[in-house]
Amino acid sequence: MPGHDPEGHDPGTPEYDHPTGGWGSLRGVARIFGEERSRPMALKVLASLNRPKGVMCSSCAWAKPAKPHRFEFCENGAKATLWELTPKRADPDFFAAHSVEDLRGWHDHDLEGAGRLTHPMRYNPVSGHYEQGGWEEAFAEIGRELAAMPPERAVFYASGHAGLEAAYLYALFARAMGHQNLPQSSNMCHETTSVNLLQTIGTPVGTCTLEDFETCDAIFFFGQNTGSNSPRFLHVLQEAVKRGCRVVTFNPLRERGLIEFVNPQDALQMATNRATQISEHYFQLRPGGDVAVMAGMMKCVLAAEAARPGEVLDAGFLSAHTTGFEETRRAVEAFGWAEIEAASGLSRAMIETAAEVYMGAERVIGIYGMGLTQHVHGWLNLGMLVNLLLMRGNIGRPGTGISPVRGHSNVQGQRTVGVGEKSAHMPADRLRALFGITPPEAEGMNAVHAMQGLLEGRVDAVLSLGGNLLRALPDRERVEAAWPGLRLSVHVATKPNRSHLFPGQVSWILPCLGRTDEDIQATGPQASSMEDTFSHIYGSIGQASPPSEQVRSEVAIVAGIAAATLPADPRMPWAEWVANYDRIRDLIEATFPEDFARFNERLHQPGGFYRGNPARERVWKTESGRAEFTVPPGLSALGQAPEGAEMTLITLRSNDQFNTTIYGFSDRLRGLEGGRDIVLISPAEMARLGLAEGQRVTLRTALQDGIRREVAGLRLVGYDLPGACVAGYYPELNPLVPLDYHEERSQTPAYKGVPVTILAA
Ligand SMILES: Nc1nc2c(c(=O)[nH]1)N[C@H]1C(S)=C(S)[C@@H](COP(=O)(O)OP(=O)(O)OC[C@H]3O[C@@H](n4cnc5c(=O)[nH]c(N)nc54)[C@H](O)[C@@H]3O)O[C@H]1N2
Ligand SMILES: Nc1nc2c(c(=O)[nH]1)N[C@H]1C(S)=C(S)[C@@H](COP(=O)(O)OP(=O)(O)OC[C@H]3O[C@@H](n4cnc5c(=O)[nH]c(N)nc54)[C@H](O)[C@@H]3O)O[C@H]1N2
Ligand SMILES: [Mo]
């Protein structure tokens, strides 16, 4: 097993008590450059990141501006890029040297650290090793297996990396085969957004674009960690703050990036180390307390309107464009301040301060991330944010809107081109007209449903287009135990990870090109494309030489499997599509004409092309034809905590990971170095519970469903957190999250609000 010391201080990373950005982030990049022994190719790719005809960063889904900065990438984008460009190889010799059993003992960091996959690998149950196989053999065997099973027993998962072209073919393949079991990483992420914004404002995505940040007067942040997870956004925020925009943040943790920021590309700021303060007010609410905060703010707005009738609410907008306001108003007014303070963990005065900023602003944007979506009542979080914004007409005007910050670089786009379990995700009439396919009417399985299906023996095959489901999902131990019962498991991946180590009876790892790699097909170099969090679409052209001649593009792999599974049909010429991706983009345009008009022509337009959003134009594609208020039945986003649950667990990302990819062991922006097996808790709570800093503890899930869920050997670390709450890292703590414990309407796992108890070891 490779020898890193997970407890040790990471020598390349300085102690951190400074603002986000600045020298710390430059040192973070320098460390990676050093580790990768930076090569000219790496520098070339970095220089092209997020520029027209360059490589679109594979880290987050933040916008690529039409006028990029000198370096349009951040520390974490550089990490993601260099991680993919590693010279290390997980080649057939690597798999010959290490059995699957052996690799199961490795840390996630070391598994991916083995480097890029180079050859198709087939699991041999006799030797217990993955062994080199050929592409034709792989396609033929996978095709034979899939064709032999009832289509509804196959699951096609996609992590949000792959471009629109591969994603479209994948979604088409599933429906041509006869199922729409197309779970996606968004099922663990912003599905709460897709389901609930669609219901309330008639669009599954946010309404803002980058320009709105140039004119908004106030920004309210709920549960999004900009400094680590979308750092290029900090430049936009800094500009906004400098021109007088006010920022108010709600987060149980004091996340550095939202406190202050030194722009590493600003020579003067770097020379003087003078930071821009980002949040004017930063409120450390209780997890799940956002509903109460927003109810309190709404009460303040209603009280102000009562005192100054006609001056505070946007009455014209409310009557012309919304429904449900009166009922919502009554529900909000019925909540008392004492219960609001208890549920939010904030004082009335704090909430009034926030409401003053809200009412003082002509144009307001509401931003959010996993802090709102990954809760049992996530729908109520989103409903309340929409409510708050609607009261003063803050949706569908320049400088206003609701803005979910999406995760993976193409997670939103994959959904746009049909990766999703619902018939509505790919229009049936178009599928019929273009390909003669009659797609299934029955809804397919999302991520939680697919894993329930696996546990109940209703799933025979899982194909994964990227990702690391076994680490990303809740209830890891149960799912790992069930996975080898699959007839077929196929992973299309760039690097080895833990999900590859629980092979089904027939199991393949298929190595694919990454975003940074040159993709050359029969008609020459190909571009792929992706959609950002603001619904802008960009082409991306890989530049690096692929890790081996054997590695194929995701488009080629999906098409190869599809051609081997489905009967030949001249309307689906898979090989011709692979030869020229322009043809796939033409099909995307033909299937989704409203979103992708003149797709090929506009592919490399600076700043991307915008596919539009009806709610932005105040056209509400909801059931009522209006923007819908959500009547709050209660004040917390948390599920019912059982008797004896002392704490709510929040699972977090560090600044040194991309989801299940662990780059290192430093969480610089939180001042946490070394190990990831930790539990953060406030010193006051530690004292109250008779626990001590550094003590080893076990966390146990406090939900009683007959299954014991525990993670042992965690080290207690005193940290600035509200009471009755602990925090620790994803994915290490995923065994504590029950699969059935999810957002009520979208089944997004409630990763930010699990009731737990702490057991002293
Ligand atoms: N470098 C890097 N970038 C990434 C990723 C990565 O892992 N690394 N992941 C990508 C992906 S897939 C996604 S989805 C995004 C995720 O990006 P984010 O949406 O920022 O997700 P998290 O880091 O999980 O948590 C967000 C914040 O929610 C806060 N929080 C927890 N519970 C609550 C609550 O009840 N209320 C409020 N108000 N706040 C709460 C936490 O303290 C944390 O600061 O980032 C993307 N970008
Ligand atoms: N407890 C807890 N659990 C969580 C979360 C949380 O906040 N808390 N967050 C959830 C969220 S928001 C998400 S999005 C999921 C993420 O879940 P996933 O998307 O399934 O996981 P990732 O870690 O992003 O996937 C990493 C793997 O993708 C592969 N990969 C990387 N680049 C490429 C590529 O270009 N092509 C292909 N084919 N493969 C590639 C590599 O093999 C790598 O090992 O996790 C969820 N799980
Ligand atoms: Mo995500």
TrEMBL record:
Superkingdom in the source lineage: Bacteria
Location of the region described as Disordered in the Swiss-Prot/TrEMBL record: 1-22
Alphabetical UniProt keywords: 4Fe-4S, Iron, Iron-sulfur, Metal-binding, Molybdenum, Oxidoreductase
InterPro entries given in the database record: Asp_de-COase-like_dom_sf, MopB_CT_YdeP, Mopterin_OxRdtase, Mopterin_OxRdtse_a_bac, Prok_molybdopt-oxidoreductase, YdeP_MopB
Residue span, Molybdopterin oxidoreductase domain: 116-483
Pfam family of the protein (one): Molybdopterin
Basic and acidic residues composition bias: residue spans: 1-18
Molecular function per GO: 4 iron, 4 sulfur cluster binding; formate dehydrogenase (NAD+) activity; molybdenum ion binding
Keyword Metal-binding: yes
Gene3D superfamilies: 3.40.50.740, Dimethylsulfoxide Reductase, domain 2
Cofactor requirements of the protein: Mo-bis(molybdopterin guanine dinucleotide); [4Fe-4S] cluster
GO cellular component, one term: membrane
Family in the record: Belongs to the prokaryotic molybdopterin-containing oxidoreductase family.
Protein name, per record: FdhF/YdeP family oxidoreductase
